[in-house]
Amino acid sequence: MTISARELLLERFRWIGGHADMWPLFRDGDAFKVVVRALIDPFRDAGVTAVCGIESRGFLLGGAVAMELGVGFVAVRKAAGMFPGEKLIGETEPDYCGLRHTLRIQRAALSPDDRVLLVDDWIETGSQALAVRELVAAAGAKLVGCAVLVDQMQSDSKAALGEFHALVTADELPDASMG
Ligand SMILES: O=P(O)(O)OC[C@H]1O[C@H](OP(=O)(O)OP(=O)(O)O)[C@H](O)[C@@H]1O
């Protein structure tokens, strides 16, 4: 019997010391492939031309999704001074930790004919995803949608992220007090 990405995620997910631990899922090559393919499913025929991923876990998933879709990857960096050349820069609202981040993409990475899929492991306040939306718009490109493993976002702003696809919601995961 084939196990679905959703079942894999629910089965392998752990809390360790209050931190969500999905790394064992990525360590298993077969499971990783199933999860990446499930993230892509609604977007296979959406005309996506670029995948964006936010530093750092979004790099891992976004790169894999880009490869599978056969398009390029656009890094969204938080770290200052790490990106060469001209950049587009945006500030986030406070994220799930109450932190504001400065997000950057290389200006030349996107053009007005690009159709962008944002990929991440987890969305909670949506602050970082919404800031990426602004960067994509500043490049003149279109954010087609957002694919995440875990959705914990309550805000109505989710609609601003285009087609939204999550493998599970946070309330389906084991309770954080278990870890
Ligand atoms: O919806 P929000 O409240 O904006 O939070 C979601 C973001 O937070 C996490 O990254 P984190 O900042 O923990 O960085 P990491 O991937 O390096 O752990 C996650 O990977 C998202 O990028």
Automatic annotation (TrEMBL):
It is found in: Cytoplasm. It comes from the Bacteria. Pathway: Purine metabolism. The keyword Mitochondrion does not apply. Keywords: Cytoplasm, Glycosyltransferase, Purine salvage, Transferase. One of its GO terms (biological process) is purine ribonucleoside salvage. GO terms for molecular function: adenine phosphoribosyltransferase activity. Its main location: cytoplasm. Residues 46-155 form the Phosphoribosyltransferase domain. SUPFAM superfamilies: PRTase-like. CDD domains: PRTases_typeI (cd06223). One of its GO terms (cellular component) is cytoplasm. Homodimer. PANTHER family: ADENINE PHOSPHORIBOSYLTRANSFERASE (PTHR11776), PHOSPHORIBOSYLTRANSFERASE DOMAIN-CONTAINING PROTEIN (PTHR11776:SF7). Belongs to the purine/pyrimidine phosphoribosyltransferase family. This is Adenine phosphoribosyltransferase.
